[in-house]
Recover the amino acids of this structure.
């Protein structure tokens, strides 16, 4: 009996040591993924001015520290005077999701030198994701890519299995109808369609990843309705600075998923008070 107890104690000690090593390994992976994410995806502290638009970004890490995700955004002026906007979400968590996010984000930036057509850009990103899937099975992602032309106030956008943008106009917010386009990395020869929208002064456009609307404690429709109410309230509360107000209100982290938010509004080069554009009815 004594021998059996000693053997059991040794096995228990071995299991505890293995668990401790496993926890250390998970912590190290989390730290690495978090550092990669911080380097690859810098988040501006306040709204940023780009040609014809002002943009604000917010990143909400998952409530569980171990779930570092592959959410990303891009917002930059192009050589022709237009603006390239994008948001995306790589499936999974950890270092693989973070490195795939980096590859897609930097690929988009490089590809924008050859074309600014959102549908073509998504087609290229899809091929890249399919190639990555050959190396790392089950690699997939969603994304929206948009080009904004300030002179025309025209937004041309395409999506790959991503939640629809929300447009706030006249004090009312609604999701935009999505053009056709499957997730990245699922169909190798997938094609993507574009949709066009003319932005008006006073509009606010919200791009986001699914962590904003999906939650274990509520349905998808309930999550979307809550975000729409928040957008309406933010625009009504701060018509002169709706972007800063909006991202400050969208601050509750999802316990199971990271969230990236990209809020956009057109500008005329002068400060606009959005109260004149809100409906009074």
């Amino acid at each position: 009996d004594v021998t059996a107890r000693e053997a059991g104690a040794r096995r228990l000690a071995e299991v505890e040591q293995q668990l401790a090593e496993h926890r250390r390994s998970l912590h190290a992976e989390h730290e690495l993924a978090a550092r990669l994410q911080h380097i690859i995806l810098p988040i501006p502290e306040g709204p940023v001015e780009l040609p014809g638009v002002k943009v604000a970004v917010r990143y909400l890490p998952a409530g569980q520290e171990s779930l570092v995700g592959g959410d990303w955004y891009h917002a930059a002026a192009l050589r022709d005077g237009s603006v390239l906007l994008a948001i995306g979400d790589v499936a999974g968590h950890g270092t693989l999701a973070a490195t795939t996010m980096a590859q897609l984000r930097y690929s988009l930036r490089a590809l924008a030198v050859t074309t600014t057509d959102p549908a073509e850009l998504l087609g290229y990103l899809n091929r890249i994701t399919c190639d990555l899937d050959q190396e790392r099975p089950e690699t997939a992602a969603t994304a929206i890519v948009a080009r904004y032309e300030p002179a025309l106030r025209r937004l041309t956008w395409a999506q790959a299995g991503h939640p629809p943008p929300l447009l706030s106009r006249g004090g009312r917010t609604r999701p935009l109808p999505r053009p056709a386009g499957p997730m990245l990395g699922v169909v190798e020869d997938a094609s993507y369609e574009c949709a066009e929208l003319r932005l008006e002064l006073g509009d606010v456009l919200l791009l986001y990843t699914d962590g904003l609307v999906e939650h274990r404690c509520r349905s998808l429709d309930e999550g979307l309705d809550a975000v729409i109410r928040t957008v309406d309230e933010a625009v009504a509360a701060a018509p002169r600075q709706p972007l800063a107000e909006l991202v400050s209100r969208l601050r509750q982290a999802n316990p199971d998923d990271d969230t990236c938010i990209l809020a956009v509004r057109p500008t005329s080069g002068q400060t606009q008070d959005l109260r004149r554009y809100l409906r009074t009815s």
